[in-house]
Amino acid sequence: MPPLHAPSPILAFEDTDFLKREELRSVRMQLELLKPTLVFNEQGIHNTIVVFGSARTSNEYHYAQARQLGALITRYFMTQSPSFIVVTGGGGGIMEAVNRGAADVGGKSAGFNISLPHEQIPNAYITPSLCFEFEHFSMRKMQFFMRAKALIVFPGGFGTLDELFEALTLIQTKKIPRIPIVLFDKTYWDRIVNFQALCDAGMISADDVALIQYAQTSEEAWEIITSCLPQHDNERI
User: Fold this and answer.
1) Tell me, what's the pLDDT at 209?
2) How far is CA 104 from the centre of its chain?
3) Which of 90, 153, 165, 174, by CA, is between 20 and 30 Å from 212?
4) Under a CB-based contact definition with an 8 Å cutoff, are residues 29 and 62 in contact?
């Protein structure tokens, strides 16, 4: 009779099939919170400028302006406050343009990519050590807003609208501090969302409408951001 061979044991944290079980969702969510937080802390990154926008954009002007904005933000903070970094959703289109702009000036930028049925591939311009993959939209959005000191939103679809309204709700309900929110291309946003109609119907207040500012160029967006940021140094703000 041949000798019996015990199966090779697998440590729980190395067992990917086990970690993917529905019962382990809370563990996976905790890891999605911890990984970027630990990496950012290790690299001295405590503040972010977050840029949203469509992965599907074919608008060359929007792409060029987003790229220039990424360069403006990154060049400034490389010398003035290395604790700041620009962050995108990690995909193509507007997100790629912003990360590309940061790379153009030799700086770091982060990307919070999301796993989707039709896979969204991280763009090639994210700093490799700051490229993160998320399973859960909720944890991804939490990471977006935990350190955000400003938000710039380029034209986009459902995902961009979801992120914009999440930010507005968090500020309105005082779950996060009031930060500048800049919508790029007022003509687009006026067609998509009638914020004044919400105010006129009593669904939001005039103060809520005042949260939103508009820009037509990367320079305008950057001027709004810098005028609203507090005096800062290399420490946490």
Assistant:
1) 95
2) 19
3) 90
4) no
